[in-house]
Amino acid sequence: MERRGISLELEGFNLVGEVYIPAQQPCPTLCLCHGIPRGIPDPSDSGYPFLAERFSKAGFLTLIFNFRGTGDSGGNFDILGWTRDLETVLEYIYNMREVEKDKISLMGFSGGAAVSAYVASKDPRVSSLVLCSCPAEFRLVTDVTRAKSTIEHFRRVGIIRNDNFPPSVDEWLNSFSQLSPINRIEKISPRPLLIVHGAEDDVVDPQDAWAIYNSAGEPKDILIIEGAGHRLRIAEKAIDGALNWLRAQV
């Protein structure tokens, strides 16, 4: 397995990530999309590199990256900006010689799942989609009365880095409404969709998973993980289920 660092330029800053490439090529591809950081990263957390290695060992060329405002990537947190980040990453993946171009999957977590659903609904190069802990709508973020405290929270977390950002709070808030997966999910069909959710998720209500599932077209599957919370990437049954499902698609 080869591990390759990447840096992609757009809008005056760089997106930083890594690609994990199996020895046997060309191969099916998986792009993992992280969620919105809720606090300062835990340095003891093995995080997405651990997942990327696991999927790569299973035969998937796997790409992980930091959305704008997070990790080593530049910029400020902006949910519509995240969709442009993912589009840039997809373009990079599609042009890799190691990739089977008709087998490109997205697997997103929480806010990254919502972004994945939005991009997949517009980009036919996405062949299948896995949504983990995905909100049907961004209810709390779009609450105007909480706008100032929400932005200040993101400043403390470190994903809004510039004092003059966002230039328009109204537009920044409205962008979350534009991304609501419940309004986009029907456009995924006829490509396969898997929804994975923890039965004990205290951040995104499990009913959101069923709302998205009921609004989606076929083919679709849903996996509710008993005893699991919001952080499904550390839930063994969730990752096992997603990997088995992805293998079946390719």
Provide a descriptive summary of the structure in words.
The protein is an alpha/beta fold and 250 residues long. The protein has one domain: Rossmann fold (3-Layer(aba) Sandwich), CATH 3.40.50. It is 34% helix and 23% strand. It is built from seven helices and eight strands; from the N terminus they run βββαβαβαβααβαβα. It has helices at 47-57, 79-94, 111-122, 147-157, 169-178, 206-215, 236-249; strands at residues 2-10, 13-21, 27-33, 61-65, 99-109, 128-132, 193-198, 220-225. An eight-stranded mixed β-sheet has the order 1-2-4-3-5-6-7-8, with helices on both faces. The two termini are 19 Å apart. The mean pLDDT is 94.
Name some characteristics of this structure.
single chain, 250 residues, alpha/beta, eight-stranded mixed sheet, 7 helices, 8 strands, 23% strand
